[in-house]
Amino acid sequence: MAKNFNSVSFTVLLLVLLMASTEILQSEATRNGQGKCLPRGCKSTPMFSEECGPEPFTGSNNDCCHCCVTKYGKDAVCKGVVEGAESHCHCYKESA
Fold this sequence. Notes:
Blueprint: H1 2-21, H2 28-31, E1 46-52, H3 61-72, E2 79-83, E3 88-94
Antiparallel strand pairs: 1-3, 2-3
């Protein structure tokens, strides 16, 4: 009985290590490139640039940021935030 338990434990351990090393355990969001958007944020005081997405914007700040990056490019945006009473997605750029 103990011998079978040890071999099962060893097999499970190998399976978990294999899954971790091949990134099978990654979340769906990370796999689709929807991880944390622009983790560096704005280095200086951000300046409003454009709006993005539908009105009202029903997603999170992270979704807003991804919308801004997709529409305007990573170099043109330093953050995206859902703001206002009507929940608009506002894209910000670095101030000059």
